[in-house]
Write a structure and sequence with these properties.
Blueprint: H1 13-31, H2 33-36, E1 41-49, E2 52-55, H3 56-69, E3 72-83, E4 86-97, E5 99-112, E6 115-125
Parallel strand pairs: 1-6
Antiparallel strand pairs: 1-2, 3-4, 4-5, 5-6
Amino acid sequence: MSQSVQALPLTEPRITQSLSHGEKFVDQYYKTFTKTSSKYYTPSSRVIWNGTAMSGDQFLQILPDLQQTMSSFDVHAFDAHPMGNMTLVNVSGVVKMGERVQFAQTFVVQKTGTMTYIVSDCFRLV
C-alpha cells in the first residue's frame, strides 16, 4: 500500500512566509555575526559546530573566539522550509578565516514576537 506525497505549491502561504523569514534571518545573522549573533542563541539552543555538539550556553562561551577568527561571510545560497511553527534554513557560502573556506550551515529557527531564536545550528567547514 503506497501513499503518494504531494508537494505544496510555491505560492502556499507557509512556504512564502518561511522563505521571507529565512531570508531576513540569513541577512541579519551573517551581517552581525562578529558583533551581535549571540542574541539569536538561547541556553537551550542545540549547536553542532564543525562536528562538536554543545548546548547554547557552551556555544556562547566559545563565540567570542569564533567572532575574532571568522571576519566575514559570503552567502552563496540559502533555502528555507516550514517545519511546524519553526523554519528550517540551509545556507552555503564562504567564510574568511585568514583564507577563504567554504561552509555549510543548517538552522532550525523559531520566531517569537519580533525576535528569531535558534533552536538548532549545525555548522561545518567543507
